[in-house]
Amino acid sequence: MSLSAQPLDSQSLSPSESPDKDGVVQLQDVVIRFAGNSQDGIQTIGGFLAKLAGRSAREVMTYMTIPSTISGGPSIFQVHLGSGEVHSAGDESDFLFAFYQHSYDSHFDSLRDGGICIYDSDHVEELRDNERGVKHIGIPITSTTVEAIGGSARDRGKNIFVLGFVTQLFDLNKEKLVTLIERQFGRKGEDVLRNAMLAFDAGYAYPIGDLSAVRYDLRQGAKGGQDKVTTDGNTALTLGLLAGGVRYGSGYPITPWSPVMEMLRSELPKYGGLFVQAEDELGAVSMALGFAYAGHTSVTGSSGPGLSLKMEALSYATMAELPLVVINVQRGGPSTGLPTSVEQSDLMQAIYGSHGDCPRIVIAPKNVEDCFHVGVEACNLAREYSCPVIILTDQALATRIEAFPEPDLDEVLVEPALDQEPRGEDFKPYPLDGLTRHAPPGTVMEGETYPVVTGLEHDEWGHPSGNPEMHARMNARRREKIKALGEKIGPPAIQGDESGDVLLVGWGSTWGPIREATIRLRDGGRKVGAIHLRHLNPLPSGLEEIFARFSDIVVVEINDEGLYGNGQLATLLRARYCDSRIRSICKTDGLTFKVREIIEGIGSPPQA
Amino acid sequence: MSAAAEPKKLTKKALTADHPTWCPGCGDFAVLAAFFKVLEKLQIPHEKICTIAGIGCSSRFPYFVNSHGVHFIHGRALPLATGVSLSRPDLHVFAFGGDGDGYSIGGNHLDHAARKNVNLTYVVMDNFVYGLTKKQTSPTSPEGFKSKTDPTGSIDRPINPMQKLVYGGATFVGRTHAAQVKHMMEMFERAITHDGFSVVEVLSECVVFYPGAFDDGNPRKGGEFEIIEEKKWDDSAEDESRHDVTDGVEAYKLASLQYPGKFGVFYQADRPTKNQLEQRWIDASREKTGEASAKDLIAGRFAAMK
User: Is residue A224 pLDDT above 70, yes or no?
Assistant: First the structure.
């Protein structure tokens, strides 16, 4: 099932590899979907497989849905395990594990033709008529687990049973998995671990039956050497902020930002810092600005609704020129929207959402590894330019688990130091001919005049000023510093063809599917390149030169086509470059892009 | 040029910055003067003074004090001040504002800063009106007060700020009057030296939009300035009827008195500050990790993810 050998049509995206002479089917990668309820520990199975992948030099990408209710409700977890590069969580699954009738009913169609459905025969009774060649295998998962654990009426542990079964089926490294299980469950107590191992062993030993004629052997990863780090986007981002020098912050709970806040709350005291949960979003951003004014690298964050609440304070941060890292873990909008679905509809808000001419920096990570590096970069930019730096991540990236090489801390780590250098007589907080470098409180002012940081328009010393020329000059100054940053940022690297028919443009978490689409299109003979923008405001330099080398420029993003047929980034690029060839592939279904949606959106090449 | 090794003496003159833009006769002039006198008396190191305000006439305070300061956004001075206080234990943090900034838009932040007992001093210059925006009803405007947003007279029951401050959890609550400079100084000094969230409500007349609002509390205008007699704990008979400042219920009763009410310290108690509580956790965390460096801490997290 090597992805790189696939022609375009969807039928042939689903071959079965033939078994070799020993009856073993060699797989390069596999997509497994687990569908159950939110309390069945579905995430745990996926998490273990992802960690195992990281330890086995394999690539992994995951995808999951969480219902927005606190308990109950369907939940799925999809794992795409591969020995080559894995760029998406998989359009269709090769294996479906269905725990309940509703899981089966809702997710049967996600299986590819000829795929395999393993269902809990204790709960799933009605099967579909099988025109698509799907192989059904019923296992009494619930009763077997209950029996294995010793007759407890509760059916906890069936997720670990399934994990054991999967380990047998794909001949995964049992020792490594058992170590992971012991590590995770050992902490919860002897009984819990014992039950987990009973369930695991029962799954591992369960006769494979029909499947035994053919075994699946995921090829070993090509890369040897270092174990990779396996984690989700929110955690990677948090560690990036810590590495970048964040020591203080404030926030308010909102899905899917809360885990970042919770991690910062627990971690920062170890670094001698502090994260405070405030009474509301405005209190949070105000407190974070207090930390920033006091001289520290400071962070706040939220999702769309909370960012809306923070807009006035962000306008203040731009005018007063205070450094602040702001995180928006985007979710479905508008308003309360879809708290647990992915969307990229806050781009315009990030750039223009505050009143006034309010330029600030906006950046977006493209995958979990990038979340770490963007976290570091945001801190550096905030300190350098004394302005808000908004990081746009999203719900899918926040919760998705990937394996990546451990970052080199020696190269990126910043140890913050409180600037208390005395300022001379000629100190100006807002010099017309330079960048702002505030004198934090506690700084001795040798000229014996102390500065007031303000949101009113002001002169170079921070005195409020309504002078017309001063306002124009100060506005220009705030704008020029962001513009200067843009000029320093070179264009992103082009994946695929350097020139050709189609240029795909994306930002944020669509990187994986766009990359996979590019590979497939090129394999089909198209000349396709793709660029991914990490910097949304300012935009990097040199883009027009890249646009000029392609006939069709297609921006892929998860937001609405708006009143004029273009998504948010497409609208910005069209305005910036006045290039009417720029068009959009947009959608707003709260799901990540499938590779085929991108390919279909591009369409056939124009007739010669 | 002073060549002395010892720090320069802090003077009112050194603290004086721009001449206030307040209207002549505004009560806030007296508040400013009292503040300067107290800082001079306490000799706080000049660079450690930090004044923070929101929006309003009285929120212009930081411009008129020559010290590090922030002129922030309407109603949010307290959370910003909280950030400064929690992350810079070496500074003396002061917040200023009026009744609109503090009790209307800022009301929620006040409750939370107070209940958390954040170490700072907050001075509210209450004039029962929105002055900067030229005479709208404020949450403390009395019923019947005619403003531009209540041309036929205010119909809403005003908030009682002393009740709010006492119930909110502040560990020092005082009330004073801008015509009483000595009393203001005493309140400010006690507020500043108190460890915890200290708030002083100052009746400060707006001569343009609500003149005479506080004449009832001004002996020079025929009113009464009744000071709360605090318990001396001397077992005397007179002490029975004096006010126990550590008694929140009694403080609330004082707060509930009809206008003009009484002036002085309503409540003062010692409770751990948020600053102290968070610092305890920081110290414990650092000890637990053996004061590990940031690099080791982050590397440790990565190791657990393999």
Answer: no
Rg (C-alpha) for chain A, rounded Å, is 26
Residue A155 has pLDDT above 80, yes or no: no
| pLDDT value at residue A211 | 64
- Token digits for A229? 């780090």
Q: Where are the domains of chain B?
A: 12-271, 273-306
Domain assignment present for A468: yes
Query: Of A450, A461, A463, which to mutate for an interface test with B (greatest number of B Cβ within 10 Å)?
Result: A450
Of residues A146 and A156, more confidently modeled: A146
Q: What is the mean pLDDT of residues B275-296?
A: 97
Could you report the per-residue pLDDT of A531-555, keeping only the tens digit for each?
999 999 999 999 999 999 999 999 9
Separation between Cα atoms, residue A514 and residue A377, nearest integer Å? 24
Average pLDDT score over residue span B131-157? 97
B7: closest chain A residue by CA = A444
Type of residue at A100: Y
Same structural domain for residues A319 and A425?
no
| Domains identified in chain A, total number | 4
Q: If you measure CA to CA, which chain B residue comes closest to A55?
A: B306
CATH code for the domain in which residue A598 is found = 3.40.50.920
Domain boundaries, position A533: 495-602
Give dist(CA A62, CA B300) in Å, integer.
24
The domain that holds A205 is classified in CATH as 3.40.920.10
Q: Indicate the pTM of the whole model.
A: 0.89
Q: Are A310 and A179 found together in one domain?
A: no
A463–B18 C-beta distance less than 8 A: yes
d(CA B109, CA B60): 19
User: A2 in a domain, yes or no?
Assistant: no
Chain A nearest-CA distance from B242, in A, is: 37
Query: How much is the pLDDT for A3?
Result: 29
| Residue that is last in its domain, among A205, A227, A249 | A227
Selected residues 219-238 of chain A with any CB under 8 Å from a CB in chain B: 227-231, 235
- Sign of the alpha-carbon torsion through B202, B206, B207, B212: negative
- The residue-averaged pLDDT of A182-201 equals 88
Percent residues over pLDDT 90 in chain B: 96
Is A464 within 8 Å of chain B by CB?
A: yes
Q: What is the DSSP string of A255-277?
A: TTTHHHHHHHHHHGGGGT-EEEE
Residue A241: inside a domain? yes
Domain boundary among A412, A438, A465: A412
Q: Between chains, do A290 and B112 touch, taking CB under 8 Å as contact?
A: no
Q: Are residues A75 and A144 in the same domain?
A: yes
Which one of A285, A293, A309, A408 makes the best mutation probe of the B interface by having the most chain B beta carbons within 10 Å? A293
In eight-state DSSP terms, residue A75 is E
Q: Do A54 and B305 touch (CB under 8 A)?
A: yes
Kindly state which CATH superfamily the domain B12-271 is placed in.
Thiamin diphosphate (ThDP)-binding fold, Pyr/PP domains (3.40.50.970)
Between A and B, how many residue pairs show a Cβ–Cβ distance under 8 A? 178
pLDDT in tens, B187-209: 999 999 999 999 999 999 999 99
Helix (H/G/I), strand (E/B), else coil: A149: helix
Q: Which of A275, A452, A458 to mutate to test the interface with B (most CBs of B within 10 A)?
A: A452
Give the C-alpha separation, B208 to B128, whole Å: 12
Which tokens in the block code for residue A399?
């919760």
Question: Do the chains contact at B83 and A290, CB–CB below 8 Å?
Answer: yes
Same domain, A192 and A126: yes
At A20, the pLDDT band (50, 70, 90 cuts) reads confident
- Tell whether A370 and A507 lie within a shared domain: no
CA distance A15 to A88: 19
Instruction: Work out the mean pLDDT of chain A and round it to a whole number.
Output: 89
Decide: helix, strand or coil at residue B198: strand
Of A288-297, A514-523, B120-129, least confident by mean pLDDT is A514-523
Interchain proximity A283–B297, CB inside 8 Å: no
β-partners of residue B130 are B136
Cβ-defined contact of B82 to A290 (cutoff 8 Å):
yes
